[in-house]
């Protein structure tokens, strides 16, 4: 699913279709939104390799859950949490492939991407993307990464292309159009992030090892 060019529109449509009227987060569009974000990371070259490889592995675990015999419990994040918690807390802590643990890892990376995209959107033509990216990383994923990874990541960010090059990668026309569409897409990503954060906090799942 992760082949082909990145398109910001695809990410926008997926995240827009994620949240139901009952504020449930549907896993199918969530995962397709993630494939879009993975294509975004891959289009930026090896710099984000360590994050995109991890995201691919996590999305694939979730797709296996969706297609497995318990698939009906993995319709939404809410039904997944309810189902996995009903099997007992030991089950959750002891299963590295549990949906809750896997989504938590994606959730943390989503915050970084959300902050980074927002930084690109509000930045100026000559804003340094390496700074935007490092600030976003430090405010999100960094606290979950060991020092070595943090060091490598921050070094890698120095090689990032210009803001305009980023906006071109979004495949939606000139930079100002990309900025407009980011303005449209980011609130949907924020909404999915916020609902997930609330759900996981409510069930004390934010620190799953």
From TrEMBL:
Chief site of localization: membrane
Membrane topology: Peripheral membrane protein
Keyword line: Cell membrane, Cytoplasm, Endosome, Golgi apparatus, Lipid transport, Lipid-binding, Membrane, Nucleus, Transport
Pfam families, sorted: GLTP (PF08718)
Biological processes per GO annotation: negative regulation of interleukin-1 beta production
Residues annotated as domain Glycolipid transfer protein: 26-171
Subcellular location: Cell membrane; Cytoplasm, Cytosol; Endosome membrane; Golgi apparatus, trans-Golgi network membrane
GO MF, one example: ceramide 1-phosphate transfer activity
GO cellular component, one term: nuclear outer membrane
InterPro entries: GLTP_sf (IPR036497), Glycolipid_transfer_prot_dom (IPR014830)
Catalytic activity entry: N-(9Z-octadecenoyl)-sphing-4-enine-1-phosphate(in) = N-(9Z-octadecenoyl)-sphing-4-enine-1-phosphate(out); N-(hexadecanoyl)-sphing-4-enine-1-phosphate(in) = N-(hexadecanoyl)-sphing-4-enine-1-phosphate(out)
Family: Belongs to the GLTP family.
Protein name: Ceramide-1-phosphate transfer protein
Organism: Oxyruncus cristatus
Taxonomic lineage from the root: Eukaryota, Metazoa, Chordata, Craniata, Vertebrata
Chain's gene name: Cptp
